[in-house]
Write a structure and sequence with these properties.
By secondary structure, the chain is an all-alpha fold. The chain is built from three helices and no strands. The mean pLDDT is 82. Keywords: Membrane, Transmembrane, Transmembrane helix.
Length: 66
């Protein structure tokens, strides 16, 4: 029952869009911090997080075939 409610909540485009935006903003902040401080590990982590945020967007919702 909980799993069904969570998957229904997660599949809403508005929820996925908000979460994707937050993840992308966190990645941009990490990347900016990495560039400004010269710590390339943070820059690399920021690039990875931005990519993950892009993959979380609402365009990735697929209809399940049962």
């Amino acid at each position: 029952m909980i799993r069904g409610m969570a998957s229904r909540w997660w599949s809403q485009p508005g929820v996925r869009l908000r979460i994707a935006r937050v993840v992308v903003v966190i990645g941009v902040v990490l990347g900016l911090f990495g560039v400004l401080s010269g710590r390339y590990g943070f820059l690399f982590a920021g690039i990875i997080v931005v990519g993950l945020g892009a993959g979380l967007g609402p365009a990735r919702i697929r209809k399940r075939r049962d």
